[in-house]
Amino acid sequence: MQAVEERYALIKQFLIGKTLTTIELEHAMNDANVHCPDDLARTLNVMRRKGLIKGEVSVERGGWVWWVEDQP
Questions:
Q1: 4 CB contacts (<8 Å, ≥6 apart)?
Q2: Which of 22, 30, 31, 60 has the largest count of CB atoms under 10 Å?
Q3: pLDDT digits (tens, 9 = 90+) for 30-43
C-alpha cells in the first residue's frame, strides 16, 4: 500500500505545469497506469485543504480544476 505522502507527491507530479480537471487528471493517471486507491476527488480536496495543491470550480471547464503553484 502506498504511503499517503507518496500518493500526494505522485498526484502533484501530474499537475506540475498544468491545470487539469478532475476527469482529465484521472485520465492522465490511468494512461500512465497509475491509480489512486481512494476516491480521487476526495484526495484532491484533502490536498487542497492542506495547501499542497490549488483548486477551484471552473464553469468553463465544467468542474473543478487543479494545479500546483510554483515551487520555491
A1: none
A2: 22
A3: 999 987 767 899 99
Q: Which grid cell is 46?
A: 484533502
Chain CA centroid to CA 24, Å: 10
Average pLDDT (21-35) is: 92
Rounded CA gap, 34 and 70, in Å?
A: 24
DSSP state of 64: E
**CA 65, CA 40: separation in Å to the nearest integer?**
13
Task: Give me the pLDDT at residue 35, please.
Answer: 79
Give alpha helix (H) positions in 1-72: 4-15, 22-31, 40-49
8 A C-beta contact, residue 64 and residue 44:
yes
